[in-house]
């Protein structure tokens, strides 16, 4: 369980303290990075089946002790059993198993997502510890229930797969972007027609 919590903390750190941003200046949602573009295209076209095919699960030890960032064992699974799960967050971290991914992706695609920006995880600098996690985080803007309201959601992308999903906790996409920028990362993703978020 300690390893799972460490992984969760590292990935949450990446989402809130990751890389440099770019915005799609021409509305096409393309980044020029094939592994990112496949995910972005699936989201922008609301292709739940294609997006589901890009999900990469991790082996996570389940636990019989409830807690934030832990995956509870199901009947017949002894404590510590490795199960396929996708790390996720809303206001708290949790995991999604394959039998729950359709519902999760359906919810993620609600609100007509538009690409806000793509953040690239920078390489570790000398004297720092590299955090294992996604290579990119794609932040999307979705419509809220009130007119003109927008919320931010994010997908962590690594090795061409969705390895993390963030449903947000009421933040706007601008707030998610600002949170990333506050950490000082400034390496922009090479995106045709894009400019860094300011």
Walk me through what this model shows.
- There is one protein chain.
- With 198 residues, this protein is an alpha+beta fold.
- The chain is 26% helix and 25% strand.
- It has helices at residues 2-16, 34-44, 48-53, 101-109, 173-182, and strands at 58-63, 71-72, 82-89, 93-96, 114-120, 136-143, 150-158, 161-166.
Short description:
About 25% of the residues lie in helices and about 25% in strands.
Taken together, the total number of domains comes to 1
pLDDT averaged over residues? 77
From the alpha carbons, calculate the radius of gyration and give it in angstroms. Answer: 17 Å
In the CATH hierarchy, the third-tier topology is known as Nuclear Transport Factor 2, Chain: A
Distance between the termini: 39 Å
Strand fraction: 25-35%
- Label the CATH architecture: Roll
- Counting helices, strands and paired strands, the structural category is alpha+beta
Morphology call: globular
Tell how many strands the DSSP assignment holds.
8
Tally of alpha and pi helices: 5
Relative helix content: 25-40%
As residue ranges, the low-confidence spans are: 1-29, 184-188, 190-198
**What's the CATH class, please?**
Alpha Beta
The biggest beta sheet is recorded as: 8 strands, mixed
Could you spell the SSE succession in H and E letters? HHHEEEEHEEEEH
């Amino acid at each position: 369980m300690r390893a799972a919590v460490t992984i969760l903390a590292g990935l949450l750190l990446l989402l809130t303290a990751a890389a440099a941003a770019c915005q799609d200046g021409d509305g096409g949602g393309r980044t020029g990075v094939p592994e990112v573009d496949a995910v972005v295209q699936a989201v922008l076209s609301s292709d739940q089946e294609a997006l589901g095919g890009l999900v990469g699960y991790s082996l996570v030890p389940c636990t019989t002790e409830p807690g934030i960032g832990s995956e509870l064992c199901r009947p017949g699974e002894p404590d510590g059993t490795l199960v396929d799960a996708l790390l996720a967050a809303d206001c708290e971290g949790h995991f999604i198993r394959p039998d729950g991914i359709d519902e999760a992706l359906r919810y993620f695609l609600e609100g007509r997502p538009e690409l806000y920006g793509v953040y690239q995880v920078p390489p570790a600098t000398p004297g720092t510890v590299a955090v294992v996690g996604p290579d990119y985080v794609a932040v999307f803007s979705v419509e809220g229930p009130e007119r003109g309201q927008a919320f931010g959601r994010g997908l962590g992308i690594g090795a061409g797969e969705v390895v993390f999903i963030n449903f947000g906790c009421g933040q706007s996409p601008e707030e998610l972007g600002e949170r990333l920028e506050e950490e000082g990362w400034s390496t922009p993703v090479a995106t045709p027609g894009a400019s860094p978020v300011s």
